[in-house]
Amino acid sequence: MKEKVILAYSGGLDTTAIIPWLKENFNYDVVCVCIDCGQEEELDGLEERAKSCGAEKLYILDVIDEFCDEYIVPCVQAHAVYENKYLLGTSMARPLIAKKLVEIARKEGATAICHGATGKGNDQIRFELGIKALAPDLKIIAAWRNEKWTMDSRESEIEYCKAHGINLPFSADSSYSRDRNIWHISHEGLELEDPANEPNYDHLLVLGVTPEKAPDEGEYVSLSFEKGVPVAINGEKKKVSDIIRDLNKLGGKHGIGIVDIVENRVVGMKSRGVYETPGGTILYEAHQQLEELILDRDAYAVKKDMGNKFAQIVYEGKWFSPLREAVQAFVESTQKYVTGEVKFKLYKGNIIKAGTTSPYSLYNESIASFTTGDLYDHHDAEGFINLFGLSTKVRAMKMQERGEL
Amino acid sequence: MKEKVILAYSGGLDTTAIIPWLKENFNYDVVCVCIDCGQEEELDGLEERAKSCGAEKLYILDVIDEFCDEYIVPCVQAHAVYENKYLLGTSMARPLIAKKLVEIARKEGATAICHGATGKGNDQIRFELGIKALAPDLKIIAAWRNEKWTMDSRESEIEYCKAHGINLPFSADSSYSRDRNIWHISHEGLELEDPANEPNYDHLLVLGVTPEKAPDEGEYVSLSFEKGVPVAINGEKKKVSDIIRDLNKLGGKHGIGIVDIVENRVVGMKSRGVYETPGGTILYEAHQQLEELILDRDAYAVKKDMGNKFAQIVYEGKWFSPLREAVQAFVESTQKYVTGEVKFKLYKGNIIKAGTTSPYSLYNESIASFTTGDLYDHHDAEGFINLFGLSTKVRAMKMQERGEL
Amino acid sequence: MKEKVILAYSGGLDTTAIIPWLKENFNYDVVCVCIDCGQEEELDGLEERAKSCGAEKLYILDVIDEFCDEYIVPCVQAHAVYENKYLLGTSMARPLIAKKLVEIARKEGATAICHGATGKGNDQIRFELGIKALAPDLKIIAAWRNEKWTMDSRESEIEYCKAHGINLPFSADSSYSRDRNIWHISHEGLELEDPANEPNYDHLLVLGVTPEKAPDEGEYVSLSFEKGVPVAINGEKKKVSDIIRDLNKLGGKHGIGIVDIVENRVVGMKSRGVYETPGGTILYEAHQQLEELILDRDAYAVKKDMGNKFAQIVYEGKWFSPLREAVQAFVESTQKYVTGEVKFKLYKGNIIKAGTTSPYSLYNESIASFTTGDLYDHHDAEGFINLFGLSTKVRAMKMQERGEL
Amino acid sequence: MKEKVILAYSGGLDTTAIIPWLKENFNYDVVCVCIDCGQEEELDGLEERAKSCGAEKLYILDVIDEFCDEYIVPCVQAHAVYENKYLLGTSMARPLIAKKLVEIARKEGATAICHGATGKGNDQIRFELGIKALAPDLKIIAAWRNEKWTMDSRESEIEYCKAHGINLPFSADSSYSRDRNIWHISHEGLELEDPANEPNYDHLLVLGVTPEKAPDEGEYVSLSFEKGVPVAINGEKKKVSDIIRDLNKLGGKHGIGIVDIVENRVVGMKSRGVYETPGGTILYEAHQQLEELILDRDAYAVKKDMGNKFAQIVYEGKWFSPLREAVQAFVESTQKYVTGEVKFKLYKGNIIKAGTTSPYSLYNESIASFTTGDLYDHHDAEGFINLFGLSTKVRAMKMQERGEL
């Protein structure tokens, strides 16, 4: 009996060509798995396509809600941003895909998992670290890095497919290299390969428009959170995935969440990309807007560092690691009172705050106001400053005494 | 002979009332000092005003270039942002003012320095820590916290002035509480005191307009940096202060740099304010855009933490401290190769990247591109991932062996 | 009916003198509370003493196990060390004392809590922040800082007691200022006040001897941990407090855990003290010895930073804060697999490792050994280094190309 | 004309076997370079040996002072410790060796550099990253990882040597794997390969004795520092290398600086080793003892984090990186006032503090003492605590109001 391999399958040219390649070179039975994280691709007919290309079977798994609840929400709560700008859309999805591939591998009794990620990118790391963490016994085949892989262009893949009886209408033209899910879409390649170039946004954008093309009228929105989880939009209770869908429409319409970045990949190179994260950008901003009312100064500062750490971990593909769990435990602990409502106005790329309320707000008008209330005695500041500045003064006295000030 | 006190003087009601108060209660000769950090206030006639109110003398010091070169530039290089949003406009200026007050105190042989900062704010800390650090022997008088200070409203201050022969046309109406310099203007008070309220931007803004009121046409700008210092705008060499002035006009016109924040003060309370930093926001963004090309991954990550630390130190008024010097030394070291040009388009609140170049760019198109060049061998990724994920795999094997995976 | 005050009472001169002082100056009924954290003081007769001095009532609460399980263990797990040396013995106990004072205050319907901590130290902060966090409505009376407090020496306190009918055999001689509980004892004062002086250890030490006076024979001990909690000593299951008691005896006997430090207090001054933490030092070292086998590199590094943060929080008296809870959640998450046994030899101040084992050890002899096993392929290192050093090489090439290398 | 390769040569079996191997497999002229970092090996006759084995030339470079001044001192100042215990002895030396290899390569016009570090260790990374950083054009040959390398035991190396006419009296027995320089010696292998084993110290130790075998009499020593650099021992001015030599003798004699650790290598595995760093351990402790007097609380805390970061960078072989330079700039800035004298007693593994003095000490006895001096007003603590605990109290009031406290 042949061994089985699980192939992360999208239906595109790259992963399609892998099917005959796996059979020819490894003599595997190929089980294709298409994980739906919200990429909005045509899934109808995918099963026939996979089978017609030689796959034994195709699984299609809709994991959108699991993706939103278990992967996106922790990142929102951590305010995890990689290198100041990237909201981790692709990074978040990869471990979940790895997990599902492993689950199917176990179910099918497969001995290997194959993916089609490039040898220059971060995704190979994320897939493979996920698999190593969950199924260290499974063999991993990275088709593009494999010595038996000989194709180096779309043309050669198409030719290879044809030679193996696969005649699908794939185009040989390459466009941007993209990755999409419910949270974001990324774009790389073409004019973006030179950071000196302005992106060709009209050609590029998928989820929304540029600020210039956004409506001339702003639009108010409100979001409600409970313990750091988004629970309602404009007062209407919805599950997280539906809130993100609504925010994507709103954000895309109003030109929000377009990021042009040169980032440092884990494999040591800089790459340049454009990300569209319309709903996600709003969600991050809204969550932070609420936290401003609730976290104290110390907690805010340490949480910021931990959020950066969380972003690094997720970016590096170390989702299934004790460290990610520990940082998430930290973050979850801070969310206990992140409950309340935030309002803002979307207008041509801007998210403009329009009021925030929370039952756990530490903002106290009587303290903050210029007129003194009961809780704050101006004279306390005298003592505070004297001790806050004590070491400063002692040092200065010492330096003065030595004639060095 | 009477002792002398140096008074940080603005010409406004608060600091004017302090002149007779200091004379009456402490029997000082009062030397007023007005430090011009770019607040764009009317300084003509200020000398007569101060003297007519009982001051012995008035110094007016234009410190704008020192402010830009020695205080603002280090913050830009550090990308110092307090609590994700505040570009530290007021925080940066206070230590310089303290330094100048001390210099005048030494020149005049004064024994005390007096300021009119409120007992609830951060500025009292920044002034006083600056003075303690530079002149620990000088007495500090914080008028508003002083037990001899009896005025608690503008009305009572006006009355006190009149009773002491000062009849100036001060208005008893209070507006927003503001602080302005060449870098920014801050607004507090009125409707802002409740975070649930949307700011009344039409009433509030001073340096620019809202995105809605900004022109319908975007505008391209380029900035050049040498070793992390801005040196030219649109190809024209200018000193830093003039670049900031130009950027303020551009940013203000295009609705850029308006921030609405609830922040944590050093004295333990939350306060809500709106900041306008039109030029500064552009400068920060441009500098970061350039650093993306130049800093490697490790340096980028640690510099981010150090920038947060720098922001905290400056916010807390600890400018004249060994720690600020050390963090600045770190940051300056990273700026050695931050040389290049950045282009962007300003449009209705957005700073849209439009291309970046640097002779020290680490971006390498042949490495980043999908087609393999000499420098990067896909197969290296295999080894990299195996070792990068080694502990992950070892742990998983151990857990599997124990039946806990 | 009189209002009641809860007094943190030790039976010593300071807190004894506070009883009549509270009655005289505030007209309170005084309820004394003595919290036993393991200070090993004579508690017999304490009730009569308190009452004879005018107290209405005395509570004695043995909280040793709660102290060990809820306060010490988290610090051990965090490896929380303040300024590289201080194992936080006093800092850990203060919040628990504050919590118990509040509980008694609620039970008694008291309106105030009084403590006798000095106005220069950290303990006043720890007590008061604890009370503020748990009972913000209660009035706090810090006797020594109170303007009605007039005594400034032991003599004057003794005199005050006598004048109020209290004739107890207190000595007017001052010794070291000490704080003791089951975890440690601290010493300040006398010759320690000058950091140039060597401590007079023969006079000073309470819990053990110097290394010089320790036995010439070393002694082997083993400790077992489950999920980061010490559960057995030399194979014998014991509760944490009993393990600490055993370790204190062993550590004291072998001259372990004596620390001489100049530390930075929260109130801005440096102070010099000697700490004895015989059992605690062993426990920290043992726990770390075990973690070496279990935590991966990333987790180890971040946990180290979090441990430092935990130490700062606890030192600053912010035990009852969201940040402490969050950091503890992080730490607890890392302890899931910190299970195993450590052996070491105690000898004249040294804790010498003598072997460590854990079912969750990530140490893998076949990988670590020089002879290659299955899991590690030498050639992987080639790819790893190429990518690990890619940005280094790209930078160097760029510099070389510019003639700057 | 043949191309030249530079071989990092020690005279031992491994690097000796590489000479004929390089000639045979790559047809290189082999230039051997022996960098003396204080390994105290027999260097007499090394030239003849190298030549008799086929090398064209041998360079012997004494870099001990450069090692001490430029590599060790920055680590001491940073208090750089890897994973709480390892004083980086090998890590510090590797970049300097790489630098010298590159210098000789340039002088000789060589096109490649060869080293004999194992494919499992950190040293291959440190050598290669150093070479990449300084000479990205040079080819790197890692003999042990090279596919043409066929020897896998000492026996096979000896045989290979014999087959190539080299008959040197190398022993086939393997002992511990060791690396030595003026700062330390490391030991791996044999019984250490199982962390459950106690090290066989009698067999193992080279630089000193165990505490048990150390003298029964302690010994006082004093060290003087200027701006963080050790300048004198027992009052006698000496260069750093001589101070380290003296301290090595003293430390070795008194059983100091023996560390038994399971550490996480960069390549992802745990390894177990014993380090002897007798002088270095004293130097680190002494430097820290001095800093306690001089650094303020904030600076101390951030420097601690930066020291950890420095240790990671050095451990990872990233010495020649912008980040190392930046962190070092931070550290150097903090050393400006680290001037003074520290005394301690060495006794059976213990470094016991015996007094510290500095002209820049921030310790102020009149402030620290229990009796109030001018500089510290007890009542300031009231205000300090009220503001330090303000957010704590506000939160508690809010929770109380909601019935959640």
Automatic annotation (TrEMBL), chains A, B, C, D:
Under the heading Gene3D superfamilies, the entry gives: Argininosuccinate synthetase, chain A, domain 2, HUPs, Single helix bin
Q: Describe the location of the Arginosuccinate synthase C-terminal domain by residue ranges.
A: 176-394
Q: Is ATP-binding given among the entry's keywords?
A: yes
Q: Where does ATP bind?
A: A8, Y9, S10, G11, G12, L13, D14, T15, T16, G116
Q: At the top level of its lineage, which domain of life is listed?
A: Bacteria
Residues where L-aspartate binds: T118, N122, D123
Name the positions where L-citrulline binds: Y86, S91, N122, R126, S177, S186, E263, Y275
Q: Where in the cell is it found?
A: Cytoplasm
Q: In which broad location class does this protein mainly occur, judging by the first location in its UniProt entry?
A: cytoplasm
What are the residue boundaries of the Arginosuccinate synthase-like N-terminal domain, all occurrences included?
4-166
Q: Does the keyword Amino-acid biosynthesis apply?
A: yes
The record's section on Pfam families has: Arginosuc_syn_C, Arginosuc_synth
Entries under PANTHER family matching the protein:
ARGININOSUCCINATE SYNTHASE
Subunit info here reads: Homotetramer.
Q: What name goes with this protein? A: Argininosuccinate synthase
Specify the species. Suilimivivens aceti
